[in-house]
Design brief:
17 strands; seven-stranded antiparallel beta sheet; four-stranded antiparallel beta sheet; mainly beta
Length: about 280
């Protein structure tokens, strides 16, 4: 996909840049794999705001994505359509299996309509195929990587994301994460070959505040502009800095304090941090 620019007929269109979706399929979404999605507006089950500056936005239908790719092992599937998904940044592929099943999967970059994909231990290491990490050759890019076997892919699911199989380490498989961190995975964890689609998502310029409201994102104002009851930095005359070090609404420091637990059990699985330090 390419970036689409507009003639500056209005002030907002002068800087607007969006992804050109003309190359996507015109097919309707799979009715059996879509359902209604209720917007929470940032509220939890008690009605309290837990995520601020959320609410409104366009109505969406949720596409149920097959993150596990285990139900139809060994059954070839044909890609019928590459679609836009309003719930995620990458595109999704509509695949029809030879046994009659129809599913949605995350679409890697370069996957075309008519291509054949499959999953399982005996699948070939080709674009769009899903297989265990121990069966994937070293150096190939992967996405939708499982953290635990059978749980479904949880790593590298955003537009343009990819991991790289870095090699073997005893019973483990080393995988380089999108952040640059190298982490050990169990060899039974599955991953899908290829880099995810919509590489130009990072180049989007929304151009106006209204476009962000369509996405359900409300205006984000500073803590110093609020009242003392709403934020620790609120109150005072003029535009003072709050009279204290920068903190969030809960009073926790915002000056780069590390939030990762020192005794996190997953620390033992990190071979090299994203800052290049060896564990």
């Amino acid at each position: 996909m390419a970036i689409k620019k507009y003639n500056p007929t209005t002030p907002s269109l002068r800087h607007t840049k969006t992804v050109d979706y003309s190359g996507l399929s015109k097919a309707a979404p799979l009715k059996s794999r879509t359902k209604g999605k209720r917007s929470t507006g940032g509220r939890n089950n008690r009605g309290r705001i837990t995520t601020f500056y959320r609410g409104g936005g366009h109505k969406r239908r949720y596409r149920e994505i097959d993150f596990k790719r285990r139900k139809h092992d060994g059954v070839p599937a044909t890609v019928k359509a590459i679609e836009y998904d309003p719930n995620r940044t990458c595109f999704v592929a509509q695949v029809w299996y030879a046994n009659g099943a129809k599913e949605y999967i995350l679409a890697p970059h370069g996957l075309e309509v008519g291509a054949t994909v499959t999953s399982g231990e005996n699948a070939e290491p080709r674009l769009g195929n899903c297989l265990p990490l121990e069966k994937i050759p070293q150096g190939l890019p992967v996405h939708n990587v499982e953290l635990y076997p059978g749980r479904g892919g949880q790593v590298a699911r955003g537009a343009g994301a990819q991991c790289v199989v870095a090699g073997r380490d005893g019973k483990w498989v080393n995988v380089q994460m999108p952040s640059g961190e190298i982490r050990r995975f169990l060899p039974e964890c599955r991953a899908t070959l290829g880099q995810l689609s919509n590489l130009d998502h990072m180049n989007i310029t929304y151009g106006k505040a209204g476009r962000m409201r369509w996405l359900g994102r409300r205006p984000h104002n500073r803590g110093t502009s609020k009242n003392p009851v709403d934020h620790p930095l609120g109150g005072g005359n003029d535009r003072g800095g709050g009279g204290r070090q920068p903190v969030d609404r809960h009073g926790k420091s915002m000056k780069g304090t590390r939030t990762r637990k020192r005794r996190n059990p997953n620390n033992a699985l990190i071979v090299r941090t994203r800052r290049g330090k060896s564990k």
